[in-house]
Every structure is written in structure tokens, then in C-alpha cells.
Amino acid sequence: KLTISSPAVNTTIGMNQDKLDWKGAKLEIGFDAAYKKLKFDLHSPGLDVLVAKGATSVKVGEIKMQGDAERAYPGGFLYLGTSKASIASMSFANAQAANKGFSVKEISLESTTTSKNDLIDSALKFGMANITMNDTPIGNFHYDYSLKRLHGPSANQLFVELSTIDQYKNNPEKMLEMQQKWKQYGIEILKHNPEISLDRLSLTGKSGELKASGKFQFKDVAAVDFETPILMLSKIESMGEVSLADAMIDELIDGTQTDPDARGMMRSQFYAQIEGFEKQGYVKREGKTLTSKVSWKNGQLMVNGKVFPPKPEIDP
């Protein structure tokens, strides 16, 4: 078990006597005898910085991180396990600027990676609560994604060999041999229909929500498809959905733009674009919410069931 600690430091820096209050940190890392498994635990009460005689400040609240990891394959780069990190709060303020700064509470990051029958699933969740910009509440933000059905042995061996590629860059015969191996790994990986998903992308404010989700995958790939890479496009399938509350548009513009003229310009440009997409059918209005569904299949991009970009009309 390894323990690393940093003492608290409360001091002044530079000619302006800027204030630094680092509240210390402690990190503990534990390994098993074979260094195959590890556990870690980090804790710090946070950090405060005051500069320009207090006109500008940066504050970071309590920091915590815990987790465990286990090497999936001997000598490999893939790890299984869970981890969680959080920052209680974070803020930046500048009393001398029109842009007054921002603040965030409860920043969190969680990850989980598991394996079953040599297929690896991995998921990550990131969130921020009570986001405020220029004294305007913005809301809560979430970003979650996942990777499913990754063939572990093939992906691991590919990563291992890529890490040694420099020693073969001047050996054309060896490079050709390696490329043939990578092709076989790719075939095996895609044979299991791996899927990358945007499970949740959202910003929730007092007036509504912006949210999106989607997934991307190769479907029914065969070894012969690798002989003509351009045909691989026909094996890609993806779909997604985006929705946005009307009232949140103004909320976002007000929170990011302090100048009234800039606000007016952004509103005008945004609404003009949305109106054009609505007329073409690429954006639909459901009550007070704008929505779009996007898909890619058989080499064609579709938005709300319509080809995108639209095909030009040909005069008779």
C-alpha cells in the first residue's frame, strides 16, 4: 500500500500578495502481490485562490475519488472495475469584468467496466448540478455514454501491438504482417456488433430541457467487407433523437451573453435557422418543444424520415 500526502498551504504569492489556500490532500493506492489489482482513494478539502487584491477568485470544494481496477488480460491495457470522483463545488468570479463568472455544485464522474464471455461493456456518467453563469441559473448538466460488446481479447492484443509499432516502422515486411493481424482483430471485433451509445446528454433548466441520445454500431460485418473499405459505410447503423424546450433557448442566450446587442443577434440568427428547418420538416414542434430524429442506414442520412441534405430540385 502506497500513501502520498500533501500538507495544507496558506500563503501569499507575487508582488500583489495574491492569496493561496491549498487545504491539503491524501492519496492511498493498494496493489495485490502480482500488481494485477489495485484500489485507490483520494481526498482533499479543496482550494481557494484570491488574486488582484481579491477582485478575482477561484474556489474548489471538497475533492474525492475512489475506485478499484483489475487487469483484464496479463500484460494488457484493458482494465475492469469501477471508479467514482466528485468535486463538491467550483466557482470563478471577477468583480472587475462584465462577465461575472460561473459556479457549479456537485460535479461527479462515475465509470464501470465489466466483462462476460470475453465481451466488455463500459459505461461513464458525468454530471454537474446548479450551474450558474453571470448570476443567471442555467441548470443541471448530464453526459452519459457506454460501449457494449467489445471483444476483449482482440481489442487488448491490438492495443498491445500498437504500443510496439515504432520498432517496426523501418521494416516493411514486418509492418505488412502486423497490418494483416490488425485486420483479423478488426474482423473479430466487428463480428460481435459492438455498439457505442450516447445514453444521455441533457441540460435541465427552470424553463425546460435540452436532451439528446443516440447509438452507433456496425451491423453484420463479414470478412469480405474489409476487402472494399468503402462498402463498410453500408454496414454502419446509427440513430439519435434531440429535443429542446422553446423557453430554454432564451435562457441559454441570457446566461452566456451579457451584451444586449449580442443577445438580440443570437436570438435572431437561431430562430431564423430553426424556422427554416421547420419548413423543411427537419425540425418538428410538439407543444413547446422542438424535436428531431436522426438516423443513418444503408449509407443514407435521414432527419425525421427525410433525406439530408435535401436533394436539389431539377427543373423539367
Q: What is the H-and-E element order? A: EEEEEEEEEEEEHHEEEHHEEEE
The percentage of residues in β strands lies in over 45%
- Kindly report how far apart the N and C termini lie: 79 Å
Q: Specify the overall morphology.
A: flat
Q: Given the structure, what is the number of helices?
A: 4
Total DSSP E strands = 19
> Regions with pLDDT < 50 over 5+ consecutive residues?
none
**Cα radius of gyration in angstroms:** 25 Å
How is the main sheet built? Answer: 19 strands, antiparallel
Helix content range: 10-25%
Helix vs. strand class:
alpha+beta
Q: Return the average pLDDT rounded to an integer.
A: 88
How would you name the oligomeric state of the polypeptide chains in this document?
A: single chain
Polypeptide structure, described:
The protein has a 19-stranded antiparallel β-sheet that branches. The longest helix has 21 residues, at 260-280. By secondary structure, the protein is an alpha+beta fold. It has helices spanning 152-162, 172-191, 246-256, 260-280, and strands at 2-6, 9-13, 18-22, 25-31, 37-44, 47-51, 56-60, 63-71, 79-94, 101-116, 119-133, 136-151, 195-205, 208-218, 236-245, 284-286, 289-297, 300-303, 306-307. The mean pLDDT is 88.
SSE inventory with pairings:
Blueprint: E1 2-6, E2 9-13, E3 18-22, E4 25-31, E5 37-44, E6 47-51, E7 56-60, E8 63-71, E9 79-94, E10 101-116, E11 119-133, E12 136-151, H1 152-162, H2 172-191, E13 195-205, E14 208-218, E15 236-245, H3 246-256, H4 260-280, E16 284-286, E17 289-297, E18 300-303, E19 306-307
